[in-house]
Amino acid sequence: MTRNDLKSLFIGYCQKEADTPDKRLFGLEYENFVMVPNNDNLEEGYHPLPVDGDAGVYSVLENMVELTKDTDFPLEKVFEKDMLLALTSPSGAKITIEPGGQIELSDAPRSSLSAANNSLQAYLKLLKKAVSGFDGRLLFQGVQPLHTLETLPFFPKSRYRIMFPNMLKTGTLGQWMMKASTGVQVSIDYDSIEDLNRKFVFLNRLSPFLTALFANSPLIEGNPSGYLSYRSHIWEHTDNSRSGLPEAFLSAKFRLEDYINWALMAAPYQLKRDGKEIQTTDWNFQQLLDGKHPDLTMTMDDWEEHLGMLFPDIRIKNILEVRVVDSVEPKYSLAVPALIGALLYNEAAFSSIQSILMDLPLEEFKIYKKAVSKDALHSEVNRTNFAKTGRFIVEKALEVLGSADEIWLLPFFEQYTKDGLTPADETLDLFRKCGENPNKWLAEELKKTDY
Q1: Cα(113)–Cα(403) distance, rounded to whole angstroms?
Q2: Taking a C-beta distance cutoff of 8 angstroms, is the pair 10, 191 a contact?
Q3: What is the per-residue pLDDT across 188-197, written as a single tens digit (0 to 9) for each?
Q4: Residue 357: which of 232, 239, 201 has the closest Cα?
Q5: What angle in degrees, to the nearest 10, is found between the helix axes of 423-433 and 438-446?
Q6: 139 in Cβ contact with 329 (< 8 Å)
Q7: Do 300 and 334 meet the contact criterion of CB atoms below 8 Å apart?
Q8: What is d(CA 104, CA 125) in angstroms, rounded to the nearest whole number?
Q9: pLDDT 10s digits, 391-439
Q10: Buried-most residue among 102, 169, 310, 440 (CB within 10 A)?
Q11: Contact 46, 446 (CB under 8 A)
C-alpha cells in the first residue's frame, strides 16, 4: 500500500455531499466509575466495581440486558470468544468496559443536543437501576480519586492484556490511563479533506483550553494531586509515540499527510488474522508495511484498525474525535459538545476564535499543556491568561447557540467559567469541607443524584 492508498480511506469518508444534515452530526462518548459498598468492612466505605461476582462488571451488563429485553431498544451482548465484552443497542449506541471496570456509553451520532441528552439520561437511568441491587453508586471524576493502581480491577479483554504490560515500556503513567481515568469525548464531522485540515488544526489549538475549562480530576489516592486535571498529566506520560499534541498538528501548514506520516511511526498493539490476535508492538506500521513482520501483509482493514489504536489529543478517523476533556457530572456533560459544535459548525464563531488561536506561538503549546494540567483556568503563560481567554471562547459559543441550545452550556458557564473556576475547584472545596477525609468526601460525592 502507498501513502495515497492510506489517504484514500479518509477521502472515502468524505464522499457524502457536503452540507447535508448527516454531515453536521456529533457523537458523545461518556465514561464513569461505579462504586460498590465494601460489605466485608463497612468502615472502608465504597470501592471500585470489580469484574466478577454478583456485584461485578459482568453482572451489571447482564442486568442491563434483562432490564431492556421487553423495550423498544433491547440491548444485545457482544462476546470475545466466550467473554461478555460489550452491549449494543438497535439505536446504534454501544456500552463497553474500560480496563479498570469503567463503563462507557458510545452514543449513536446525533443531530441535536436535546437528542444526545435524552440518550445519556436514558443510559444513566438504566445503569443506576442495574447497580441498585447491590447499592452501587455512580462516580463522575476524571481520575479514580481514592484507590491505588494495584487495588483497581482489570477487565481482561485481549487488547487490554497486550496494552497493560506494554505501557511500562512507553511511559510512567500509562497503566493509570487505562485503569483509572474517564473522560467525555466528542466526535465532529468533516465533509472534505480541506475541511478536515482546518478543523483539525483549530481543535488541536483549542485543546488546552478545553482541558482547562472542564478540569475535574484533582484527587489521587485520597489526596490532592497538585493537578486540577491529573488525567491530562497522566496522558502526558502515557506513550509519546501515539498520544499528545505534535507540533505539526498545530501548524497552519498542516495537511492530512502529516497525520498519516505520524501514524505510520506508531505500532499497532495487535492485528487480527483468522479470528486470532497477533501482537505487533515490536513493529511500527511503516515497518509492517515494509514487510518486517514474517507472517503479516498489511491490508486497509489493518490501517483502519490501527487508526483506532492511536491516542492523540485530537484523533482522525471517519470523524474528528476530541479526547482531552475530563469526565464531568452528567448535568454538565452536554456543555462539551455544545461548546465544540457551536465553534466548529458556525463560521462566524469559528473565524473569531480561530484568529485568536492562530496568533498563539506554536512553541508555547507544550507549556500550555503542562500549565493547564496543573492549574486549569488559573494558568497564565506569558500573554495567555486562560481564565480570560476561556471565558471569551465560551461567551462566543453562547452568542451563536441561540435560546434553544444555550441551556446546555449556560449553566456550566454560570457555575464555573464566568468566575474562572472549574469542577476541580469545586471538588477540592468539598474535600476541604470534609476535613480532607477521603472516605467522608467520597460518601458526600456519591450522594449526588442531580444528574
Answers
A1: 13
A2: no
A3: 999 899 999 9
A4: 201
A5: 120
A6: no
A7: no
A8: 14
A9: 999 999 999 998 889 999 999 999 999 999 999 999 999 999 999 999 9
A10: 102
A11: yes
Give the 3-state secondary structure of the chain: CCHHHHHHHHHHHCCCCCCCHHHCCEEEEEEEEEEEECCCCHHHCEEECCCCCCCCHHHHHHHHHHHHCCCCCCCEEEEECCEEEEEECCCCCEEEECCCCCEEEECCCECCHHHHHHHHHHHHHHHHHHHHHHCCEEECCCECCCCCHHHCCCCCCHHHHHHHHHHHHHCCCHHHHHHHECEEEEEECCCCHHHHHHHHHHHHHHHHHHHHHCCCECEECCEECCCCEHHHHHHHCCCCCCEECCHHHHCCCCCHHHHHHHHHCCCCCEEEECCEEEECCCCCHHHHHCCCCCCCCCCHHHHHHHHCCCEECEEECCCEEEEEEECCCHHHHCHHHHHHHHHHHCHHHHHHHHHHHHHCCHHHHHHHHHHHHHHHHHCEECCEEHHHHHHHHHHHHHHHHCCCCHHHCHHHHHHCHHHCCCHHHHHHHHHHHCCCCHHHHHHHHHCCCCC
Q: Is 33 in contact with 219 (CB distance < 8 Å)? A: no
Given this model, what pLDDT does residue 416 score? Answer: 98
Pairwise pLDDT comparison (147 vs 16), residue with the higher score: 147
Structural domains present in the chain = 3-266+310-446 (3.30.590.20)
Q: Which three cell numbers stand for residue 199?
A: 478543523
Q: What pLDDT is recorded for position 15?
A: 65
| End-to-end alpha carbon distance in the chain | 48
CB 330 within 8 A of CB 120: yes
In single-letter form, the type of residue at position 101 comes to: G
Determine if residue 398 is left, alpha or beta; phi over 0 gives left, psi from -120 to 50 gives alpha, anything else beta.
Answer: alpha
Residue 28 near residue 120, CB atoms below 8 Å = yes
Q: Are 237 and 369 in contact (CB under 8 A)?
A: no
pLDDT, average across residues 190-217: 97
- Cell of residue 256, nine digits: 492530512
Task: Supply the mean pLDDT for the chain.
Answer: 95
Rg of the chain (C-alpha set): 21
**Angle ∠(289,294,300) on CA atoms, nearest 5:** 35
72-107 in b/e form (b: 16+ CB < 10 A) is eeebeeeeeeeeeebbebeeebbbbbbbbbbbbbbb
